[in-house]
């Protein structure tokens, strides 16, 4: 159960006292002119998960776009004129933070990645992305780190502006723009006779990568994403791409401008170079070894395993999960995630959403619990306070006085049952209720 009888009654007492105060103020307002639009809201859930732990019987007060008080119901007083949101049987959480999305992509079983990059217009992709942003927000994700437009140029910068200006609903975005790849290493690839538009920006050499990094930052990149390894040819395993020197220059160039660098890396050498260059997170890490995870821990680099992406792609390729034997790739993934946990690496929750449907972001958290042995509490901490810390977002990820009022309410207790995250009842971003 969610609450002890004692805290439950305390919660109701506070909301009751508050309702009395509210009716008084409304009566007063009716006798004069119109009631002012309430800018203060008291949220009364069964329990509050503050980003670290759960507190039964707590309430949260929101004024404007900030959290102004949080604590046991008896200790939080709402001002006269505030409204109340009774969230009985629900848990209030910080708005979730998606660690790895691609708003400009849609699931590969609808359209292959190649065809999205080559045949879909930017207008079509942006129109889709607006729908993706809304679905992401309504699924409880009030912030997303979007790691590359995959051929859609700087469309993520405009998408972020449209959200921030209140033109379309969506999460607060951290955008990577085009991402950096070594010439020849990425895709799409078809005939050798044609030069195709690529899914990321090609750059080489110390001067070339510094220039491309600066270009992306100048256009609005909050974070620089680099592919430290990739498959050079179809069907072959990944190999390192950029040299150690090139990666180091990318990180130094970005760091000087206050931008972190994140690396798509899956080979031990690609991961190692990215860590030594000073990236902040490693994305995917499929073939990480105990040695590279040890190095990751030593350098304070966090790991975003994106388990849902591989799981989805294998099913698109015909794997009938639960019926067919588990593919080697899944077994390897489990071994690498286990090695990272053993090494004490910090985890980032991010699913590589776009490979699978936007709004289905909870899939990563469900898989981490069901297939990878994490507890629901660990996964929730990753998706809130954990991601906020790794992404340098000191103003969110926890429920505490002074932080942004990015809050969601779900039916039940997600720290016990991760599927409760599918039951999002309320979404508030910056004090504005979207659901
Ligand atoms: Zn990705």
UniProtKB/TrEMBL annotation:
<dbReference type="Pfam" id="PF01979">
    <property type="entry name" value="Amidohydro_1"/>
</dbReference>
<keyword id="KW-0732">Signal</keyword>
<feature type="domain" description="Amidohydrolase-related">
    <location>
        <begin position="91"/>
        <end position="432"/>
    </location>
</feature>
<protein>
    <recommendedName>
        <fullName>Amidohydrolase-related domain-containing protein</fullName>
    </recommendedName>
</protein>
<feature type="signal peptide">
    <location>
        <begin position="1"/>
        <end position="29"/>
    </location>
</feature>
<dbReference type="InterPro" id="IPR006680">
    <property type="entry name" value="Amidohydro-rel"/>
</dbReference>
<dbReference type="InterPro" id="IPR057744">
    <property type="entry name" value="OTAase-like"/>
</dbReference>
<dbReference type="InterPro" id="IPR011059">
    <property type="entry name" value="Metal-dep_hydrolase_composite"/>
</dbReference>
<dbReference type="InterPro" id="IPR032466">
    <property type="entry name" value="Metal_Hydrolase"/>
</dbReference>
<dbReference type="InterPro" id="IPR051781">
    <property type="entry name" value="Metallo-dep_Hydrolase"/>
</dbReference>
């Amino acid at each position: 159960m969610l609450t002890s009888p004692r805290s439950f009654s305390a919660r109701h007492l506070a909301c009751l006292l508050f309702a009395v105060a509210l009716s008084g103020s409304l009566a007063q307002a009716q006798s004069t002119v119109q009631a002012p639009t309430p800018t203060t809201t008291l949220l009364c859930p069964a329990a509050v998960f503050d980003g670290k732990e759960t507190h039964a019987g707590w309430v949260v007060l929101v004024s404007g776009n900030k959290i102004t008080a949080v604590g046991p119901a008896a200790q939080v007083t709402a001002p006269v004129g505030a409204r109340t949101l009774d969230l009985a049987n629900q848990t209030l959480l910080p708005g979730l933070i998606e660690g790895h999305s691609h708003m400009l992509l849609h699931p590969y079983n609808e359209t292959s990645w190649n065809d999205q990059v080559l045949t879909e217009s930017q207008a079509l992709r942006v129109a889709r992305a607006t729908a993706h942003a809304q679905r992401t927000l309504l699924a409880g994700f009030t912030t997303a780190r979007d790691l590359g437009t995959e051929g859609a140029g700087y469309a993520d910068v405009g998408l972020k502006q449209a959200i921030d200006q209140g033109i379309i609903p969506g999460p607060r975005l951290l955008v990577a723009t085009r991402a950096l790849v070594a010439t020849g290493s990425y895709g799409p690839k078809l005939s050798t006779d044609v030069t195709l538009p690529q899914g990321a920006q090609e750059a080489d050499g110390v001067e070339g990568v510094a220039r491309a990094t600066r270009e992306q930052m100048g256009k609005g990149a909050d974070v620089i994403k680099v592919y430290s390894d990739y498959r050079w040819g179809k069907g072959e395993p990944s190999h390192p791409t950029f040299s150690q020197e090139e990666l180091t220059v990318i990180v130094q160039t970005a760091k000087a401008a206050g931008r972190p660098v994140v690396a798509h890396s899956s080979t031990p050498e690609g991961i190692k170079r990215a860590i030594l260059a000073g990236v902040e997170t490693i994305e995917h890490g499929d073939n990480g070894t105990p040695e590279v995870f040890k190095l990751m821990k030593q350098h304070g680099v966090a790991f975003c395993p994106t388990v849902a992406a591989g799981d989805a792609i294998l099913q698109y390729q015909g794997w009938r999960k639960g019926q067919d034997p588990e593919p080697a790739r899944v077994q390897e993934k489990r071994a690498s995630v286990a090695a990272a946990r053993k090494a004490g690496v910090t985890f980032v929750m991010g699913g590589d959403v776009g490979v699978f449907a936007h709004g289905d972001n909870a899939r990563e958290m469900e898989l981490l619990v069901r297939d990878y042995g994490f507890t629901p509490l660990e996964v929730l901490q990753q998706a809130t306070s954990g991601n906020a810390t790794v992404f340098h977002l000191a103003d969110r990820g926890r429920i505490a006085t002074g932080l942004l009022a990015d809050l969601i309410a779900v039916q039940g207790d997600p720290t016990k049952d991760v599927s409760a995250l599918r039951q999002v009842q309320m979404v508030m971003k910056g004090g504005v209720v979207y659901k």
